Amino acid sequence: MLGLPLRGGRSLRKVTEQHQSKRLELQLAGVANLNRTKLRELWRDSYGSEPPEKISELLMRQAIAYRLQVKHLGGLNFSTRRALKRVLEESDATRLKHHSVSKRVTNGTVLVREWHGATHQVTVTEKGMLYRGKLFRSLSEAAREITGTRWSGPLFFGLRASSAQSQHGTK
Fold first, then answer.
1. CB 82 within 8 A of CB 75
2. I need a surface site. Which of 139, 151, 161, 167 has the fewest CB within 10 A?
3. What's the pLDDT tens digit per position in 151-166?
């Protein structure tokens, strides 16, 4: 659209942009006053599908408001979408790497850990973890018995890397 001059030094483009901005403002204000039935109708118009069954009215209002803004102002540009996709893929890769570091133990495995100068041995059995003749339901319970504080059993016994190690690549 050309910036044709109007009275008062304004251009047609500025007037149109101001009109669109005011229109968007009014639409957004109107969304706040809609009941659930009207919100569902507007959702169908905006997204082309039914809203999720148990979506709250607040979330519906926010999603519809976002959609209206994208329609009037435009969405994310290509480079921003690409950067967000890359961040998502990297976080997925980190999460997958984190889970792949985890090791499985089978019955009969003896886990050994030194803690405050004493060596502790936990044997994996079909019924749980055996430590000093006492049976524990999980490795974390055995680690708690050893340390006196809550620990992740797999982390305590070195079967899983800590999240800090996974993120920084150390082992």
1. no
2. 167
3. 888 888 888 776 555 4
